[in-house]
Specification:
Length: about 425
Amino acid sequence: MSEKIVVENGVLKVPNNPTIPFIIGDGIGPDIWNAASRVIDAAVNKAYNGDKKIEWLEVLAGQKAFDNTGEWLPQETLDKINEYLIAIKGPLTTPIGGGITSLNVALRQKLDLYVCLRPVRHFDGVPSPVKRPEDVDMVIFRENTEDIYAGIEYEAGTPENKKIIDFLQNEMGVNKIRFPETSGIGIKPVSKEGTERLVRAAIEYAIKENRPTLTLVHKGNIMKFTEGGFKKWGYAVAEAEYGDQVFTWNQYDAIKAESGEEAANKAQADALASGKILVKDSIADIFLQQILTRPKEFDVVATMNLNGDYVSDALAAQVGGIGIAPGANINYLSGHAIFEATHGTAPKYEGQDKVNPSSVLLSGVLMLEHLGWNEAANLITASVESTISSKVVTYDFARLMDGATEVKCSEFANELIKNL
Ligand SMILES: NC(=O)C1=CN([C@@H]2O[C@H](COP(=O)(O)OP(=O)(O)OC[C@H]3O[C@@H](n4cnc5c(N)ncnc54)[C@H](OP(=O)(O)O)[C@@H]3O)[C@@H](O)[C@H]2O)C=CC1
Ligand SMILES: O=C(O)CCC(=O)C(=O)O
Ligand SMILES: [Mg+2]
């Protein structure tokens, strides 16, 4: 009989037959979910000789929800995920320039899933546009509930927009809006609390996984009180709460100002030799260059919502593309988590049984690891590695590989199951 996953004193208690809600997703969602869930089920069955089994519970969101209930994100879906704690989803479509706001973002906000965790590593044999994709081994901690993604926007020409612009011009003395009559306005909240909880999660991950550095990525030179605030609060929480486990560039600068460069270099070298994590920062534009030119220098990365979105897809490209880019949205305090691929609904491939199911499948691997079902997770990871090495791949890899056999999405899943 299926049971609920619960959280007790901050620890997940996972029964052998947990109920896990899933959202099938729009566009390519059904193809990738049907493929990935078969592989997950087969791996769990094999790893535990049938003693464990996930009871999947479909919950609706997106087009399927609208067609069935008249709502894009029914309250029942939120209630079920709230109740069962852990869920997994396919991608959901967001119209551009109007229409409904993102359901993907709404799920993260409504359940306060404040960390978007996106690990990026290279699998042997996966084609890549860079010379040494194996040098990329980063874990992105993307703030998931605020920034420009909070969705506070006012369309040009509307009374609300005019009210904001009038307020800025008449009450705040703003005279820098170049074309006030035709400007759309977006508001970017970035808070101390939001930054601190994200950076805490990133540092705790770095400690647990023995990762040597954490980089705070921001554009604080331009957006001084939002992105600059993120940098300032990030360093402050690292020093205040993890002072005996980290050394920061902020501390380096302070020692340098007080005692000179040599003393600062020595303090940093001593700290790293004693196993402390180096917490540093990078401005977002140069970061996007350096992840290409010097990927070895980056490890755990913490950043705000929009930067994290850009960085996720850019880094995915370096290790084979968005077809193999998993992710998770997590609230480490409540225990809620929704696992999902980094990519979207790829509408041109809808219903073609063509695309790579690896992103949602590897999101499933993250989920299994989160549940402590590492044996099943490891079986899938090993199967993905060996299947790709055998050059039996979906179109995205086949077009970049010599001598590959291109298979459909569902056939790739069959191959993965065979190789478990
Ligand atoms: N979390 C979510 O649910 C997300 C939803 N979206 C939404 O998805 C919709 C489409 O967005 P779009 O910008 O086109 O981005 P997508 O990520 O959906 O697709 C862009 C391109 O990425 C490649 N791709 C995506 N998924 C796969 C896969 N599984 N296997 C292989 N290749 C893949 C394809 O490349 P190629 O053309 O080279 O073959 C595809 O054309 C939008 O409505 C957007 O808002 C976007 C991102 C995340
Ligand atoms: O919600 C969307 O449509 C896009 C979200 C996105 O790109 C992401 O979370 O990476
Ligand atoms: Mg994105």
